[in-house]
Amino acid sequence: MKNVTDSFVSLGHWPSAGSFGFNTDILSTNLINLSIVLGVLIFFGKGVLSDLLDNRKQRILNTIRNSEELRGDAIEQLEKARARLRKVEMEADQFRVNGYSEIEREKLNLINSTSKTLEQLENYKNETIQFEQQRAINQVRQRVFQQALRGALGTLNSCLNNELHLRTINANIGMLVSMKEITD
């Protein structure tokens, strides 16, 4: 500190400075210097400082306004989302109810379809049984007829002698010839 003070003292002894000199009393010079600096700062800095504070205040107010608008928008979107959620929940309940009724309807349709199919199969079975019975009856009739024919032929062959046989053949040939002449 002594060096700084000595440099001011040596500056105070310039011959061209005349009556101008430096006060080396640090306490009185600091107070004067501080009051001058504060006066200059207040005089010139008041406008800048108030502008800075006003700008800061406006930014804070704008931020608050924007925050309020965003909050209002967020609340509005929340209400819309809640309304959509309620709507979706109602639709889900409706789908669930419709799904259960659709399942019941499909179940009844399946039961009815299966019943109709079983009924048709029963009818086909009965028709097949009747067809097989008729076929069996026809086969039995045919066999009875064949056996009766064999028996009749056997009886005829045993009863007919050669002469009677030749006369029957000649009579049949005669009938065929007369039928042929009628048709010609």
Features:
single chain; 184 residues; mainly alpha; rod-shaped; ion transport; transmembrane helix; ATP synthesis; plastid
What does the model show?
The protein has a domain at 32-148. Helices cover 90% and strands 0% of the residues. It starts with a helix and ends with a helix. The protein is rod-shaped, with a radius of gyration of 67 Å. It is an all-alpha fold and 184 residues long. It has helices at 2-11, 26-159, 162-183.
Topology of this structure?
Layout: H1 2-11, H2 26-159, H3 162-183
Transmembrane segments: 31-49
GO molecular function: proton-transporting ATP synthase activity, rotational mechanism
Family: Belongs to the ATPase B chain family.
What is the typical, i.e. mean, pLDDT?
82
Strand content: under 5%
End-to-end Cα distance, whole Å, is 170 Å
Largest sheet: none
Question: How would you briefly describe this protein structure?
Answer:
The protein is an all-alpha fold. Helices cover 90% and strands 0% of the residues.
